[in-house]
Amino acid sequence: MAPDISNYSLLFLIIFVLIPLSLSYRYQLGMNKDIVWSTIRGTAQLFFIGYLLNVLFDLRAIIGVPIMVGAMILIASLHARNKGQGLPYVFPAILIGLLLIEASVLALWLIFDMISFKPSEVIPMSGMVIGNSMVAMGLALERIKSEFKENNGRLLAALSLGASPRQAAQIIIQKTLRASLIPNVDGLKTIGLVQLPGMMTGMILGGIEPVMAIKYQLIISISIFSSVSLSAIFITLVVYRFFFNKQAQLVPIKEGQSQ
Length: 259
What we know:
Layout lengths: L6 H5 L2 H13 L5 H26 L3 H20 L9 H22 L7 H32 L1 H9 L4 H4 L1 H20 L8 H8 L4 H30 L20
């Protein structure tokens, strides 16, 4: 069992914050306020969620799990839609995608008895799936917007030669999916070699046998890999259509608030 970390010990984490802060000041990066604010906000959020989880863990699973998982999906959708500014219906597309993927992953966990339907198990593991899916969707949205902007001429040429929107955008779809999946593919290649994953490390520090910790880490790592793949594919195949109208013509995307 890992020893309890006192609040006094946590205060010394300020040393780690001073390092990027001093680098920002030395090289005039203009990130001093962002570093301080991010540190304060992140610390406050973690303590808040810690106390909130204590409350949720005491509730019945049928109440606590939907509340927290629903909140995580909503917040993740609101955050990811910022990457798709200017695209119509991007928020509902992300929200539906995250709901479907989380429901599918959770169902498989429960059906094959990988975890129990308890807030203490479902909420942390679902959070990792939702968080990584959110990042994948954000990367896909940024990449597809960039690709359509850079390849405008090629797309127009393909459409003028009789290509359908899907045929014209095929290369862009492939590039977007590849860019979204590469980080997770590389991470899975080096898992356990370059670093011990967070979940596994936490369980070992909590006194769980390493082999048991590895089993849980495999469940979440493969689940994340699958959910990230599905997230990128889902949002890409939905969003690319928004760049074309019903007459199969390119539609200019204006940067601004997403719907």
